[in-house]
Amino acid sequence: MDNLNYGIIGNCRSAALISDTGSLEWCCLPQFDSTSVFAKLLDDKKGGSFEIHTKYNYEIHQKYHRNTAILVTRYSDGENTFEVHDFMPRYHKLTGKYNAPPEIVRYVKHISGAPRFSVLYDPKLEYAQGKTAHHIKKNFIVSLTNKQKFDTLFLYTSFNKRQVLEGEEIVLKEDGYFLVCYNEKILRPTTEKMSLELERTKIYWLDWVDRTPTYKQFNAEIMRSAITLKLLTYDKTGAVLAAATTSLPETIGEVRNWDYRFCWIRDASMVIKVMSELGHKNSARRYLQFIIDLMPDKDEKLQIMYGINREKALTEKTLDHLDGYKGSKPVRIGNAAYKQKQNDIYGILMDVIYEQLVTFENDIENGEDLWSITKGIVWIVNKHWREPDKGIWEFRGEDRHFTFSKVLCWVAIDRAIKVAKIFGKERKINEWMDIEQEIKQDIHENAWNANINAFVQSYGSSHLDASVLLMESYGFIQAKDPKFVSTVRAIEEDLNNDGLLYRYKNEDDFGLPSSSFTICTFWFINSLFKIGEEDKALTYFERLLGYSNHLGLFSEDIDFKSKRLLGNFPQAYSHLALIECAINFSRKKSEEKILESIS
């Protein structure tokens, strides 16, 4: 497989990746950041998978059931046809809570004839660190390991368990199922019950999408991206994951690979802002509670990232027994970046708090907590904004005065002033306005490089950086301001590579990047749109959409030459930026139609 041709299924507790041939190759249970039970994605031989095999004359097609997270893989030789409907159950229980167990249903639907297939069922528990043994019991197959620590996995099925485990051919005459469970079931599953789970989960997703606005243009892309973002949210705490995977490399064969199964404050806040715009209040509420619970002390500095259950120590380790994706070692779990100082997170978080207060002004909870957090953020930003940091790209070398970090410090104060106005706290406004003006003046004096006529990556630098394009989005500068327009032009000239953007071109800790960070291209497209180059922006956007995989999903990076997807997958950053771009184009189209009808 030359590309990341996977679909994601999930239930806001965990997720799984299934290839375009129906091979289940990544899943961690019972939750997103648990040890893997299938990890062929990270090692073809040792990782473990659950594969559906048919003869060579079967054609395989894959799609999502429309407006759901249910993945349908269809196998047909013309006369004999069946489908596998893959999903993780999620639906409302009578108690009002969600049913979202740590399990995967593979519902096998008979369509026509007498199709034949075989199964390779080969889970490897605990990141495949020891031997996993399989035993056939009366009601299930149990897989277990006890080398690193004791762990078990259960497979229930309507098919003959010995045939399944030994990979013998199965002739399909009626619907059947496979149910992969972290826990042993109390009530024995049946095909009828699994069909009911499928329908209940389908209704959940259809209802969820029904609460999302419909757009004139790119509606299908917006909905698929919105569902993907939802799949990367962790219901229990409100955390939002950066991606569902670990160690998928930015460049094949290199060491740029990290564990993204955590909640970065920056990424998560951007996701929640988009989800709020799409009308999903509960995700926003849960995330704000996640932040409130992280900040018990008024002067406690935020980390840049946390575990999905609010863990603060995310110790980074390598799994040296795994070969890595396409041989790209090391495979990492944990992420040492949690120790880094990044001053931009306060502005991004304050922006989300302000947006929630505006969007849900008559329906906001925890107002007093949010006001305390606002005051605490202003105190921290005022104390630290003059200091260098690691920046948005998490450079592991020396700290610098990154322009993006400074702009987001300004955003923190600007949004705090707006929040003070909402809460009627007039006494704070004048005091904070002085800080706001000081930061703004500092940025204009030190981040602007008159020689290249652009805002640059860091103070005193001549390097350009795609992150400064967000100056306009966050309200620091107007789109038609000559300084912003010339910055967009300079970035297009220097960082654009055949419609894909470098984050930056200066060498970092690992040399010159050889792949495009997908969100940067979306930022660039948005900036072109904002400065009035809408046709060019649309051309770039439609070309970029063509680089998604067969299901419309994006990873973190795109290779400049081959255009293959690289990096962790699917990437929340990429999909939130896709939604922002698509909504801009859709609104423009709606405005044009209104003008046409008036004239």
TrEMBL record:
Matching entries from InterPro entries are given as:
6-hairpin_glycosidase_sf, 6hp_glycosidase-like_sf, GH15-like, Trehalase-like_N
Organism classification: Bacteria, Pseudomonadati, Bacteroidota, Flavobacteriia, Flavobacteriales
SUPFAM superfamilies (UniProt xref): Six-hairpin glycosidases
Q: Which domain of life is it from?
A: Bacteria
**Residue span(s) of domain Trehalase-like N-terminal:** 8-137
Q: Know the name of this protein?
A: Glucoamylase (Glucan-1,4-alpha-glucosidase), GH15 family
A Gene Ontology molecular function term of the record: hydrolase activity, hydrolyzing O-glycosyl compounds
What biological processes does GO assign it? carbohydrate metabolic process
Domain GH15-like: residue ranges: 222-582
